[in-house]
Specification:
The chain is an alpha/beta fold. The protein contains 14 helices and seven strands. α3 links the parallel β2 (51-56) and β3 (75-79).
Length: 314
């Protein structure tokens, strides 16, 4: 079979994803965040006799997926949110992988409004429909904006930024990414060292998460994995910031029974395979090597956590 290439997209932690998913002949793997198709292509190349189902809510990603679907009979593309995966599938599967990062295609296209490096409309909608980032900063109450920036971006100066946003929008509504980024920079100031992140990084992350309900999608997808995976099926989650990683870490610990007992007098349950939904072969998250980070700077904050579905019925 002809090698399937990545069309400019560099998938993160690819070797680790293949190692933990371990696709085998005849298995069905779901790529819940198809994006540029990087994971899907590598899975199909690693196991030419397995089947991959791609899911994405971004119309551009769906178009890329449909092209791949026409080229490879072992691939199927579905338009939808990965949090709705249980409703989108009509069968149980052997693997489910999620890459929670924004794809290179979204970041590199100024018109999508995800980046503060390139000026474009203040959008950030992965589905290209519904409420945009501009809607939030132009219509939400000051306190609500501050809460979004703090909760989803861990921005310590969220209230000062929210106040500056509300003050400025009375003069002129926000329309572009650089317009908002400049207001945030005016509040926080420019970092002294070139390697420091842009002062708007946390705020843009927070708005993107809010616009796309990313935490809700993640929670729904991980819970759905309990029902869609066969016994022995693998759930692999690649995160890019601490908020996502804490969600994934907590989920795997709770669903594998690896949680603090609270008291030394509580009984220790050893038959985890019979009582819990997942077994986690590794407690620590996997991280990219220095070499991978050097080749792809967007991988620097990535972490991978995974678990194997037990036979315990939901």
């Amino acid at each position: 079979m002809t090698l399937l290439h990545d069309e400019g997209h560099i998938p993160v932690l690819m070797k680790d994803v293949l190692d933990t998913l371990a696709p085998q002949k005849g298995e069905v793997i779901v790529d819940g965040t198809f994006g540029g198709g990087g994971y899907t292509r590598h899975i199909l190349n690693a196991c030419t006799d397995c089947h991959v189902i791609g899911i994405d809510r971004d119309p551009d990603a769906v178009s890329r997926g449909k092209k791949l679907e026409a080229e490879n009979p072992n691939f199927k593309m579905i338009e939808g949110c990965f949090g709705d995966v249980e409703n989108l599938l009509d069968e149980k599967v052997d693997g489910f992988v999620l890459d929670l990062g924004v794809s290179s295609f979204q970041l590199d296209q100024a018109e999508r409004g995800f980046s503060f490096i390139k000026d474009g409309p203040l959008d950030m909608r992965m589905s290209q429909g519904g409420q945009s980032a501009a809607d939030i900063v132009n219509t939400f109450e000051e306190n609500d904006i501050a809460n979004i920036l703090y909760q989803y971006g861990d921005e310590r100066k969220s209230r000062r930024i929210a106040s500056a946003i509300v003050k400025r929008r009375h003069e002129k509504p926000f329309e572009t990414t650089l317009d908002l980024a400049n207001v945030i920079e005016g509040v926080l100031g420019r970092k002294k060292k070139p390697k420091d992140s842009h002062p708007a990084t946390r705020s843009f992350q927070a708005l993107r998460i809010a616009v796309n309900d990313e935490m809700g999608e993640l929670d729904r997808a991980m819970e759905a994995a309990i029902n869609i995976l066969k016994p022995g099926g693998r759930l692999v989650v690649v995160t890019f910031h601490s908020l996502e990683d804490r969600r994934a870490k907590t989920f795997f610990r709770e669903k594998s029974g690896d949680t603090p007992r609270g008291s030394r007098h509580m009984p220790i349950i050893t038959e985890k395979n019979q009582l819990y939904y997942f077994e986690c072969p590794e407690r620590r998250a996997r991280a990219p090597s220095d070499q991978e980070i050097k080749q792809n700077v967007r991988a620097r904050s990535a972490k991978l956590r995974w678990g194997v579905r037990t036979e315990h019925e939901s």
